[in-house]
Description:
The protein is built from six helices and no strands. By secondary structure, it is an all-alpha fold. It has one domain (4-104): Alpha Horseshoe (Serine Threonine Protein Phosphatase 5, Tetratricopeptide repeat), CATH 1.25.40. The longest helix is centred in the N-terminal third of the chain and has 13 residues, at 4-16. It is globular, with a radius of gyration of 12 Å.
Amino acid sequence: xxxxxxxxxxxxxxxxxxxxxxxxxxxxxxxxxxxxxxxxxxxxxxxxxxxxxxxxxxxxxxxxxxxxxxxxxxxxxxxxxxxxxxxxxxxxxxxxxxxxxxxxx
Length: 105
């Protein structure tokens, strides 16, 4: 299992939109992208990238098989977040990936 410090480092890259460092840390460590660690809201990194409109991070997470169908504590998926903040680029990526079988992303 990945150390908490590396998980939160990756989460920080997502929140700030640093897709290059995010991709590097995803490559170096086996981070569970579908884990709902982010506070009591039970968000995933994909929720966070979408909420903050970090489309490059959304793409990087989807390429690493982040699941777009996971609900947070508000029963919202990452797609719901993209629709809420009107992030069309992330919304399109999520719509495309949600229609693909999980192993073909």
